Amino acid sequence: MMVLLLLRRHVSAFFERFGWAGIGMFLLGHYLLSYLLLALAAEEHLLSGLDFTYFYLTTATTVGYGDLSPKSAAGKLITSTWIMLGGIALLTTVIGKASTSVGDIWRRNMKGQGDCSALSGHTVLVGWDGDASERIVELLSQDCRTRSGGLVICDSLITENPMPGHASFIKGDSLDSPAVLLRAGVRGAERILVHTRSDSLTLAIVLTLKKLEPAGHVVAHFDNSERAALARSYAPELECTSNMAIEMLVRSAQDPGSSTVINELLCIGEGATQFRHVLSPGFSITCGELYIRLRQEFNATLIGYRTPQGSHFELNPANDLRIEGGEIFYIASTRLQGNAL
């Protein structure tokens, strides 16, 4: 037994130097030569149909059911030396190399060295800021629209995927590098959220994304409202938000309970939430008529309308305002489906 283990170890180490093509050629050669040797030993009962493949695999893996076995002395010698010893070495090499390859891929993905550029319809979160980012992922996962597309986290400081099983991870030396953002799949992403520890870095990422021109919607958060305004002036097509804590504080002081309303509108879970719905270009109706239809058919409330290309936004639009395509914003318990209207 010790001789077999030693032989298998040395042969496996030898074949580990070859790639998959080399190991496949060795395995095919061993298979064909085994067939030829058994044919020369007149073991015809082992060579018909799929019997030889079955006999070869059960012998090489040392399973040995015993329903097929060589009868001649030459056949027994070929089986016990050439097929069994050679097959063990080759098949264990295949299994070992496959296990190593899977492990390498898993480790690369955990370390953020993978490539998500071929993905589409997913969400990319650029930057990781501990609990705040975990809360973002939690809110995203509550909406089936973002949950079904998958999530990619992209950061330069953390060393491993912070949420394995929930998101993919891309690590780069600099988050404003086009190569890193492309590897995170920003070109095919449906939505991109930028939330970093530094407004300066967020601004640099915004400018890089403007140059890359991703097809999906980009939202970047700034702690400083002036930086957010600066980002909007450079990239008006991207959505730049800023911290509204002061505004919420004042509004809650003037109108108690306002913070509760805002939190309910923004958080996805039980109860009503604010959603957006894109209308077809040929859709035409007044805001008053649409308001009644939304209430009667979907128990939803119209709160805003944006014209096509985002040229004008109307909050609490007048009843006689004509809607011609564009986007509506509404409050409802569930999201309207694509052709609901």
Distance between the termini: 74 Å
Largest sheet composition: 6 strands, parallel
With helices defined by DSSP (H or I, 4 residues minimum), what is the helix count? 12
Q: Could you say which overall geometry the principal axes of the C-alpha atoms support?
A: elongated
The computed structural class is alpha/beta
User: What is the C-alpha radius of gyration, as a whole number of Å?
Assistant: 32 Å
Side by side, the strands of the main sheet go 3-2-1-4-5-6
Strand content: 15-25%
Whole-number tally of structural domains: 3
Q: State the CATH architecture of the largest domain.
A: 3-Layer(aba) Sandwich
- Roughly how much helix do the residues carry, as a percent range? 40-55%
Descriptive account of the structure:
With 341 residues, the protein is an alpha/beta fold. It has three domains: 2-110, Helix Hairpins, CATH 1.10.287; 123-243, Rossmann fold (3-Layer(aba) Sandwich); 254-332, Regulator of K+ conductance, C-terminal domain (Alpha-Beta Plaits, 2-Layer Sandwich). The protein contains twelve helices and twelve strands. It has a six-stranded parallel β-sheet. A four-stranded antiparallel β-sheet has the order 7-12-9-10. A hairpin with a 6-residue loop joins strand 9 and strand 10. The chain is elongated. The termini are far apart.
Give short descriptive properties of this protein.
single chain; 341 residues; alpha/beta; Helix Hairpins; Rossmann fold; Alpha-Beta Plaits; six-stranded parallel sheet; four-stranded antiparallel sheet; 12 helices
Q: What can be said about this structure in brief?
A:
The protein has 341 residues and is of the alpha/beta class.
